[in-house]
Amino acid sequence: MTSVDYLKRFDFHALYEQSLTVKPETVIQTLKQSTFSLSDLPTLISPAASQFIESLAQRSYQITRQRFGNMMQLFVPLYLSNECYNHCTYCNFSIHLDYPRKTLTDDEIIENGKLLKSKGFNHILLLTGEAPKTVDVNYIGHAIKLLSPLFSSIGVEIQPLKQSEYEYLIKQGCDSLTVYQETYEPDIYKQYHLTGKKRLFENRLYTPEEGAKAGFFKINLGALLGLYDWRFEALNLGYHLSYLHKHYWKVKYGISFPRITETISSFSTLYPVKDIDIVQIICAFRLLFNDLSITLSTREHPSFRNHVMPLGVTHLSAESNTSPGGYCGTNEQDQFQIHDSRSVHDISKQLHSIGLDPVVKDWDQAFIR
Question: Angle 275-288/53-68 helices, nearest 10 degrees?
């Protein structure tokens, strides 16, 4: 049984409705538990639980400090290309948008890498659109090899690949894979993904399992909040993560909850996500998955990030630029709008002010060689 088969066994719409009807008394009893299980997820993300957000936040803070100490891992994204063959209604890289596309050359990859290294970064995430004819696995593998001498950890967020292709990237020096399902609601998924291979819902859903079989050290999951109701997405993410934990227990897992931001196509969400919703979902997942890495995106505003950092977050992106080669002054189309543009120095200063320690290296490829 695959993860796709496993998720089909559950009626997530029914679980969602169950969550909406949870009573405050149930939340009170649940929060008295010393540990939590997957069956508690509908309660922890329920509207009733939002009334107890301070209690949730306190528990989440305590667990995070117990498991991770005061560490906050900093990383930086590097976009290699904005070429894409998919028509996704919410994305600035969508093929239906008419603007010149850019894919970095070897020299540009190295130039951007050296600049980011000079700022103190040791963990880097490489991103592309989905254009497998021009930005194929060989191009991505070559980029990883070029950057391996500079960075202790290299991750990818790219088009879905097969196990053998992921194994190739691992050999080039890649250690982590990030895959966002975008939305877990199949019919809604089709409404947002009109053409291209990304339209294949189950293919994308199975991708983290391909990565786990390939042997990635870490796999990050997520949904793009605002495409559908965040509680429905949280339920699917929780069950998906639970399956992967059980069947691929050697892998370290992480999760992120990015929200829709402004796009050049003026996309407007029908499912707005409030700040308190982000806090609730972070705390719920920390209570359920104590050792889970949780990332907070630069999509969020600085003031919100400052308040949420201690509550369950373990990883922060910093100085992000979502256009190809944007760190070295190119003016290419970005994927989405950044709201927290603070430097790594300013982020580190903020972390120190609340008793947290910014960490730029907690992993090295040598550990698995």
Answer: 50
